[in-house]
Amino acid sequence: MKGTGVALVTPFKKDLSIDFDALSNIIEHVIAGGVEYVVALGTTGEAPNLSKDEKKQIYSFVSEKVNGRVKCIAGIGGNNTPEVVETIKAFDFSKYDAILSVSPYYNKPNQEGIYLHYMELAKASPKPIIIYNVPGRTGSTISAATTLRLANASDKFIATKEASGNPEQFMDILHQKPINFSVISGDDNLTVPFLAMGMSGVISVIGNAFPKDFSNMVRFGLKGDFDSARELHYKLYDAMKSIFLDGSPGGIKVILNELGLCENIVRLPLAPVNETVEAKLRQLANKLK
Predict the structure, then answer these.
(1) Residue 165: its pLDDT value, please?
(2) Per-residue confidence (pLDDT) for residue 231, from 0 to 100
């Protein structure tokens, strides 16, 4: 799992139905921009706001549209372990390469519960699994010790997406991980320094809008050309920060709208970003076009 993955947005029409034409355009945009893989229904895809049928439609549409041109990752997670297991067992993995699965949220399981949850997923899944640690959304942290325990317990675990923002946490993992286990950044604006510490890439939000510059930045970093990576990092820096000022994916959808790729629409309980942030994002989008 090296390079840039993009957590695809789910575009909506004004009637709040899924805009598959816009999704098609975004997929073409990110593939043409040189990313290494896409994630269907990661956090940025607003999965909690979609019905089961809508999720199935998106999984199918994304895999058919990508058609093997880049790797395809399915976001499949939840806080009901048996339900996640059943979802995995029923899933059509014929055009998917791996699963990205978020740590159980809201229930606040202890570390043993998190470990056992993921081990059940490993038993059920025919594909590799990327662990996803995002305590700002889940309300609990997968400790470095638990991540390493999982990485050593099953070959199904090929990577962790670390969105904890805690350098000590991911350096502990990088220092002790098995050789074939990757650590992936979950923070766009921290990707370059994280690459310097040994991460293998990123699953990005800003990559929906600016895939060429962002994926080139990551490739420069992976090659050790940090002068070139730093130049692109600061070119995108304000945008990478600003898309999270008033909620995500509301921020990235403003930029995508300014680029003509989708409507600036999210589903409740999410709401559009405030007018001040929207104006700033539109200005940044035009600057970076």
Answers:
(1) 87
(2) 98
CA distance 205 to 249: 8
Residue among 175, 165, 236 at smallest CA distance from 205: 236
CA neighbours within 13 Å on the CB side: how many for 40?
Answer: 29
Quick check: is 271 in a domain?
no
Does the residue 197 lie in any domain?
A: yes
Determine the 3-state secondary structure of 163 from DSSP: coil
What span, in angstroms and rounded, lies between the C-alpha atoms of 55 and 153?
30
Nearest in space to 235 (alpha carbons), one of 212, 205, 258: 212
Q: How far apart are CA 176 and CA 145, in angstroms?
A: 10
As for how many domains the chain has, the answer is 1
Apex 227 CA angle, 160 and 201, nearest 5: 15
- Rounded distance, CA 184 to CA 162, Å? 6
Judged on CB neighbours under 10 Å (0-12, 13-18, 19+), 95 is middle
Burial class (CB in 10 A: 0-12, 13-18, 19+), 165: middle
pLDDT of residue 1: 79
Q: What is the CATH number of the domain that holds 165?
A: 3.20.20.70
Mean pLDDT of each 10-residue bin along the chain, 289 residues long? 96 98 98 98 96 97 98 97 98 97 96 98 98 95 97 98 92 96 97 96 98 98 98 98 97 98 98 98 96
Q: Is residue 56 part of a domain?
A: yes
Active site amino acids: 132, 161
The model scores a pTM over 0.85: yes
Residue 253 lies in a domain: no
Q: What are phi and psi of 129, to 5 degrees?
A: -125, 135
* Structural domain boundaries, residue 103: 3-225
